[in-house]
Amino acid sequence: MDKKIVDELARAVGRENIIMDEASMKIFEYGAVDSHKGTPDLIIHVTEREQVSKILKIAYNYSIPVVTRGSGSSVTGAVAPTKGGIVLDLRGLDKIKVNIDDGIVEAEVGATVLDVDNECKKYGFFFPPDPASARVATIGGALAENAGGMRGARYGVMRDWVLKIEVVLSDGTVTYFGESTYKNRAGYDLLGLIVGSEGTLAIITKAWLKIMPLPEKIVRIAGFFNTLDDAGEAIFRIRREGINPLILEFADKEGVEAANKVKGFSYPELPGGMVLVDVDGPKNGVDSIADRVIKIMQETHAAQIIRPETPSEMERIMDVRRVAFTAPGRLYPGFIDGDIAVPLSRIKEALIGVDKIRKKYNVFIATVGHAGDGNLHPNIGADPNNKEEWERAEKAAEEINLLAIELGGTVSAEHGIGKLKEDVLIKQFQVRGQMPMYKLMKEIKKIFDPKNILNPDKYALG
Ligand SMILES: Cc1cc2nc3c(=O)[nH]c(=O)nc-3n(C[C@H](O)[C@H](O)[C@H](O)COP(=O)(O)OP(=O)(O)OC[C@H]3O[C@@H](n4cnc5c(N)ncnc54)[C@H](O)[C@@H]3O)c2cc1C
Fold first, then answer.
1. How many angstroms separate the CA atoms of 436 and 252, rounded?
2. For ligand 1, is residue 131 a contact (CB within 6 Å)?
3. CATH class of 217-414
4. Atom of ligand 1 nearest to the CA of 148
5. pLDDT confidence band for 24 (50 / 70 / 90)
6. CATH code for the domain defined by 3-89
7. How confident is the model at residue 55 (pLDDT cuts 50, 70, 90)?
8. Ligand 1 pocket member 177 (CB < 6 A)
9. N or C: which end of the chain has fewer CB within 10 A?
10. Mean pLDDT over residues 235-262, rounded?
11. What is the pLDDT of residue 114?
12. Domain with CATH 3.30.43.10 in the chain
């Protein structure tokens, strides 16, 4: 990058916040998965919100790409600076203020989702969206990806919990979308448009989020199944029979095996995997709901049902689900993220369909997921240096996405598009007659970002 521009940036944000040495920049070449990479010209560690506007004014003036970054836990290549330019590290913006009277938490975007949740807990409240990456995922990254998580079965995704955002537009203008009220009909829903836009339309610097009172009691139940058919039936019936679980998660045999290996656990490694359920409510009402879940698991032939009683036992069984997600990355050098969602009634077909694809291509797939909202992560592990193995893995990934489309589902439930899902996104739009919507998306991108400097080369937007 031209020295004149670097000097101008240094005057705006302080030279100490600009990183240009090669070793430090390496860390910012990709996110959680390295299959998509790019080399930035420089990194800026932002320490005050006002700096974002100053940086964008300069970037706009010289048409420099800007990739906004939280913790870089994206699994789709969304933070790879494939066109070079500036990587804006927003983790320094981490102030959190809970406002119990209004039922709101105000958070700067670098605060992690877990920090926000923990801050709310001090007041007897919590922040419902809980991506499994909550320890690192920032509020900005979670909003930009419209992240979901374990509690999505009950509480949905980030978009359901955000009331208002402070944004910086591509030319450096600061403005606000939404209001810090629980209801607001003033204007088009531009707030909803920014959520899930993966840093391609505007940079979010602060958010006003809704919070909920903590449940009095949570009961956790894990069922282990001999067949995917039975596990799928249990998941379907729990929802169909009117139980509204706090979480309804799944981890397949490969995922459970990996967790046992990594953590030294000995949970049952059965072909139908594990269905993990949390139910919550008032102290004296939860047990009867838990009994209904256990009855459904018995009726769907669970081989073993565990109801952990202590917080540490509960945590251990939750770890199975957490580790299962990362299993392919722990066991293989290469990882391909799967993030499909299907209608609730088709979850069983999705589980069985993925298993068939696994066998057809003879690849390692650990399928975990937020099954309660129809979302599965069939994650693939393979060696990118083994050309033949990697090709099989890519073919399996593509077929899984096509299966989701065929079942009336989507290729991206919560992890977004980034670079990884660009082709299958277009495929989905074509099959569903949504190409006119895609055209509108491209027009919207031009309005928000006429110079194409905000996270360019992503989201199939060029
Ligand atoms: C082990 C593991 C488990 C995961 N589990 C889940 C899960 O359960 N649910 C789920 O939904 N996701 C999950 N993810 C994916 C990922 O963690 C989430 O998408 C997370 O919300 C990203 O947050 P981040 O701060 O790391 O964002 P980053 O990866 O840094 O950025 C993600 C995207 O957001 C943009 N962005 C970041 N900050 C801003 C901002 N302030 N303004 C505008 N754009 C911005 C970036 O440009 C990029 O496009 C998981 C990932 C891993 C590695």
1. 38
2. yes
3. alpha beta
4. 11
5. confident
6. 3.30.43.10
7. very high
8. no
9. C
10. 95
11. 98
12. 3-89
Residue 69 C-alpha to ligand 1 middle, in angstroms?
Answer: 9
405-425 average pLDDT score: 98
Does the C-beta of 112 come closer than 6 Å to ligand 1? no
Every domain of the chain with CATH number 3.40.462.10 lies at: 217-414
Please name which of 318, 234, 229 lies closest in space to residue 271, comparing C-alpha atoms. 229
For residue 270, the model assigns a pLDDT of: 98
pLDDT score recorded for residue 341:
98
Question: Closest ligand 1 atom, CA of 167?
Answer: 42
pTM, full prediction = 0.97
Ranges for all domains in the chain classified under CATH 3.30.465.10: 96-213
| Mean pLDDT value across the chain | 97
Give the pLDDT score at 353.
98
Please give the average per-residue pLDDT across 244-251, as a whole number: 96
Q: Looking at ligand 1, which atom is closest to the CA of residue 143?
A: 21
For 96-213, CATH gives 3.30.465.10
Lowest mean pLDDT, pick from 61-70, 277-286, 345-354: 277-286
Atom 5 of ligand 1: nearest residue by CA position? 132
Cβ neighbours of 130 (radius 10 Å): 21
pLDDT for 284: 87
